[in-house]
Design a protein that fits this description.
- The protein has 7 helices and 7 strands.
- The two termini are about 30 Å apart.
Length: about 170
């Protein structure tokens, strides 16, 4: 099976063209760091500034994605709205879904990364089908997955630690 049955390369390319500041996190990031797994969605950490989120939303709309909830992703720029979504609605991601084949999902992390700017500067750029993809650094991905606490995340962490150990030996 392919690691990306529903490859998000066109999403990354469109986000890059629109100069959206984002990092690939989650399963796709694990794959780009060398974990042998498959994923069916793309998880992104997006810089939570209104203009960046507007640009993100325009790209997603242009690509045929709509938000799963009846709200704008720009609400993520407001800490009070984010708190309401996470506390009252137990929202972890703001999902965009594609209503035509291949029916992909792109999830934006609702909780911001502790220091998006620093992680963005330290990003790992992976070339995927000729597109430069900004990926969260390995150490930060490990911490993020440890905090998630799901079985798949623990499995990813085990593989990511192997990747990390190999990188230290080089």
């Amino acid at each position: 099976m392919q690691p990306f049955p529903y490859d998000p390369v066109d999403v990354f390319q469109a986000l890059n063209r629109a100069r959206v500041r984002y990092l690939v996190v989650g399963g796709v990031a694990a794959i780009f760091h060398g974990v042998p797994r498959t994923t069916f969605d793309a998880d992104l950490a997006v810089e939570l500034e209104v203009e960046n989120l507007r640009a993100f939303e325009r790209v997603m709309t242009r690509l045929g994605f709509t938000s799963r909830v009846p709200a704008s992703v720009t609400g993520l720029a407001d800490p009070q709205i984010r708190r309401r979504w996470t506390v009252r609605k137990s929202m972890k991601v703001f999902s965009f879904i594609e209503h035509q084949k291949p029916f992909r999902t792109v999830d934006v992390m609702v909780r911001p990364l502790r220091d998006f700017g620093r992680l963005y500067r330290q990003r790992v750029t992976v070339r995927h089908h000729g597109v430069a993809v900004p990926v969260i650094p390995l150490g930060a991905l490990i911490k993020m997955k440890q905090g998630a606490g799901r079985v798949q995340d623990f499995e990813d962490v085990a593989y990511l630690r192997i990747v990390q150990a190999r990188a230290r030996r080089v």
